[in-house]
Amino acid sequence: MNRIVMKLCMAFSAAVVLGIVFAASPAFAKDGKCNGLPTAVKDAIAAAFPNAEIEEFKAETENGVALYEVEIEIADDEMDVSVTADGQIVEIESEVSLEDVPGPVAAALQKEAGGGEIEEISKEEMRATLKDGVATMLAAAVVSYEAEISKEIGLDANGNLLPEEDDEDDVDVEDEDEEEEEGHED
């Protein structure tokens, strides 16, 4: 009888210790969001992003390499991290502001935007190449940026870009009608 009680106490103690370890793990997601995520992936994220909380993940295959696309949150900022099943971080993607990008990138984005608005900028950090089922880590990460730019353009019937119109020369029909009405009221 004492052996059974001792085994139960040991099992309970082990469960409590495991619960404390998982609850204290920085990359542990609440509500079971890590169920099915390999330990090597969780460990890689915890090591690279100690204060991260895993929001969600999905498994996929790219160029024959099994990857986990993991969405993490750090202090209200979200990032997408691609990790191999054995824990190699392949890519990190995050949203950044225009002020966060290097000067030449900011200048190029503003030039491309022209009169449009830069709505979103993504920073992509590639740490490995994926080919024929193998992830090959790069000596140095390759950083690139993508942006969503809203800009009004005009096209003719053949799909050719029309020159930008000068908005100052445009006459608003409503304004003309109001001016005519005001002129008759004298």
Quick overview of this protein structure:
This protein has 186 residues and is of the alpha+beta class. Helices cover 30% and strands 37% of the residues. It has a six-stranded antiparallel beta sheet with strand order 1-2-3-4-5-6.
Lateral strand order in the biggest sheet? 1-2-3-4-5-6
Contiguous helical run count: 4
* pLDDT averaged over residues: 80
Helix content: 25-40%
Give the strand content: 35-45%
Q: What does the radius of gyration come to? A: 28 Å
**Helix and strand sequence:** HHEEEEHEEH
**Which structural category do the helix and sheet elements fall into?**
alpha+beta
Shape: elongated
Q: Distance N terminus to C terminus? A: 108 Å
Instruction: Note the main sheet.
Output: 6 strands, antiparallel
Weakly predicted, low-confidence segments = 1-30, 170-179
Number of strands: 6
